[in-house]
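Is this the right way to post structure tokens for a design question? Let me know if I should format differently. Anyway, here goes:
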């Protein structure tokens, strides 16, 4: 999804294991999982190859994430406590600091913590689990290293916290959908630049 491996690229077990500093066995298991999810294909006697993907695949992925996430924020808006809102405000400030420090690793970590707190406030554990699995292949580093995205994310977080303080589920849903639409546009533009479409 990041474009570091283009569709049609063969993934060599030994090279990948060496690059990751692990044995071949976990790489083989990971490729088996990725094959089951359609991210790679096994070509007999040749090995694993990165599967092709399209703009439609990106649209579908972000639609699914937005659909789940909006259900979670609507639930969160209805049941979130003042203490949880205060915690979200603190996490939003941590995310803003990480963006100001231009630390993609810290940004990715802060973003995860903020979204996790929203999902916990929703009280819908299974739905949050589905969202986690729908987002795990997104290249968070692309976003975390983009200062323009960071400014948009900070503004979105602040507005979302304010919507939660008002217990405004409709506004929380609108803001969440807006963030996923922005993420889809940015990833699509990035992959356009790299010429990765099939």
């Amino acid at each position: 999804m990041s474009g570091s491996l283009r569709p049609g690229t063969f993934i060599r077990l030994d090279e990948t294991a060496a690059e990751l500093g692990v044995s071949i066995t976990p790489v083989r298991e990971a490729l088996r999982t990725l094959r089951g999810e359609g991210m790679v294909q096994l070509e007999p006697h040749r090995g694993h190859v990165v599967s092709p993907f399209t703009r439609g695949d990106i649209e579908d992925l972000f639609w699914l994430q937005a659909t789940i996430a909006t259900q979670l924020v609507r639930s969160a808006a209805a049941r979130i406590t003042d203490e949880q809102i205060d915690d979200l405000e603190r996490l939003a400030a941590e995310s803003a600091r990480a963006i100001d420090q231009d630390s993609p690793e810290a940004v990715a970590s802060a973003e995860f913590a903020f979204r996790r707190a929203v999902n916990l406030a929703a009280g819908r554990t299974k739905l949050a689990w589905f969202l986690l699995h729908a987002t795990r292949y997104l290249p968070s580093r692309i976003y975390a290293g983009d200062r323009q995205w960071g400014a948009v994310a900070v503004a979105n977080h602040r507005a979302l916290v304010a919507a939660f303080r008002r217990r405004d589920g409709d506004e929380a849903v609108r803001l969440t959908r807006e963030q996923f639409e922005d993420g889809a546009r940015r990833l699509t533009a990035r992959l356009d630049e790299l010429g990765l479409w099939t």
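Format looks fine. Someone answered above. Worth noting: Strands lie at 10-11, 40-43, 47-50. The first helix runs from residue 13 to 20.
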